[in-house]
Amino acid sequence: MTLPPSDTTETAAAPGALANSSGPHHRIALRPGATCTYIAFNTDVPSMTEASSGTIGNVVRFTDEERRFAEGVPGFAESLDALICWLRDGSGELPLRLVGEGAGASLALIGGFLLPRVSFLAVDPVPSLANAEDHALAHPFWGEVAALAAHHPGHQLGVTAISAWDPAGAALLSRDEFLPPAFGTVIELPCRGSGMTYLRRKHALLPLLEHGSDAVLELRNQGVVGRLSAFGTRRQFRIFHDAHVAMSGKGGSARRRAMQFVEREPGWTNPGWQHLRATLLRRENLLPEALAAAELAMASGAEAVEICVQYGRIVLEMKNGDAAPRAAKALEPFLRQRGIAELRDNLLALV
Predict the structure, then answer these.
(1) From CA 60, how far away is CA 178, in angstroms rounded?
(2) For the chain, N or C: smaller number of CB within 10 Å?
(3) What angle do CA 259, 262, 267 make, to 5 degrees?
(4) pLDDT tier at 67 (50, 70, 90 boundaries)?
């Protein structure tokens, strides 16, 4: 992908000064005294109350959950090229801070590669799982991301964050070669998907947006983020990813293949991996082994509702009164979610 000349007519919004506007898939809100412009793709940006440093920024938010920006932004930019051209010509003179999650992260990366005066935060740029054989990432314009990254230098103002407990994150972390320097500083997040929610909960979103790689060291020291390979090796992440792909298959051969992967790394403490192991073992009715895997997942993954729910269900199925109090207590932060209060009450009935 290359940018056409500045006088292109592809963009739906005319070049010039940034102005307030809104539509089904976009919102532009100007803030008095802004010193930058946040561009968010399929996510939100920090509110003014979160900006403890006093930074004020304009906000531009684009959404396209259905087509994942493969055709630009419906009703605003008719193509991906048109959207990138608007970011260059129509987003004003202030520095841009791009932030996106999933397909939006891929778009933030493209903007970071092509545009001047830009910083970016790309969270979980893995919108779909890879093929078990070639580890290719299926996405409408992932090929553009990879091709552009291969020909761009390192990005000092960019951060790419990957959820290391998630099978989709494992698809990216299992690649034979590390991500190229154009992806900026690559960090791993100790969470199972929803990386943006995790960063916001840990009050790390704004520091990463404002300070980029300069904020990473402090966040690492706080245990909020990890360096690349902090939560597993490429080999382990490849097994994680391939086991998930095999688990999604149908028939006895797929189940046997999935169980072969489960047996390769029984002691790896990555909570997402142990959660997947527990799922497979429970499906095969190997409940004692499933409970052991679920307990390993709980050791450092009790903030993830899926991990707590599965642990509770295994304890309930085994009628394990000794483990029931811990399982019930782990569910308390999630009681407002459907069905969890009932599971908690059933566990307490075992005591």
Answers:
(1) 31
(2) C
(3) 155
(4) low
Using CA atoms, how far apart are residues 167 and 231, in angstroms rounded to an integer?
A: 13
Position of tokens 């490429």? 234
Tokens read off for 278 = 């527990």
**234-348: what fold?**
1.25.40
Question: What is the C-alpha separation between 180 and 74, in angstroms, rounded?
Answer: 31
Range(s) of the chain covered by CATH 1.25.40.10: 234-348
Cα separation of 256 and 271, whole Å? Answer: 22
Per the DSSP assignment, residues forming a β-bridge with 161 are 123, 187
Kindly indicate the confidence band of residue 64, based on its pLDDT and cuts at 50, 70 and 90.
Answer: confident
Coil/strand/helix, residue 323: coil
pTM: 0.85
- Degrees to nearest 5, angle at CA 95 with 9 and 199: 110
